[in-house]
Amino acid sequence: MSRPENATALVTGASKGIGAAIARALAGDGWNVGVNYRSDEKGAKETVKAIEDAGGKALAVHADITNGDSKALIKEVEEGLGPVLALVNNAGVTRDGLALQLSDEDWDVVIGTNLSPAFKLTRDALRGMIKARYGRVVNIASVVGPRANVGQSNYAAAKAGLIGMTKTIAAEVARRGVTVNAVAPGFISTDMTADLATDEIVKAIPARRQGTPEEVAAAVRFLASDDAGYVTGTTLYVDGGMSA
Fold first, then answer.
1. What's the Cα-to-Cα distance from 120 to each of 24, 67, 144, 155, 196, rounded to whole Å?
2. Does the annotation count 155 as an active-site position?
3. Active-site residue among 37, 134, 155, 237?
4. Which of 12, 33, 54, 165 has the CA that lies 20 to 30 A from 112?
């Protein structure tokens, strides 16, 4: 089935970096785009402007997905743009440290931002997708999910959980015209990685460079497209060979 008319994609954490690149890529493929943000209103509005300047349709939507009502967020986007038939769970944070040093708060914040909201939003968005017999869910995981990275037990647990959740929900809704996949970026050039020792890290990457947000966005764009209608329950790694 082809994408219904006026179909809308909701991208969480889309004010900058990977999320903003995903929002622009989906708009370029004809989706209306809900640009969710928590604190960076300026960045979200810049993302919306870039989409509109290119002829697309977008709406900046403020919501803290860690304590907000996912149904309310989806409703706001649908009232402003159209039915949410694609969901990209991108919002995330890090609180790094060795396991012995991680506080309960460090654990709870990372799980409560990177994993739990993704489930709640997916659960609530699926109802409309199943009714339309068309839907795309893409969870932004990480190469750290299946691959150890010292100092990130909380982040790894959240991202591994996203991959497991992706597979399970994909199997549950596959007959309803809805696909659920994950994209697992490696070392991508964003604000989150700006303070890391880039020169040393890239030595361990077969491609010998950082990836770009646009390269991650291209993978999401494919998984959200009609061409990926028979792709579900999988994880697409965008990592320069780190997981090889």
1. 24, 11, 22, 18, 32
2. yes
3. 155
4. 33
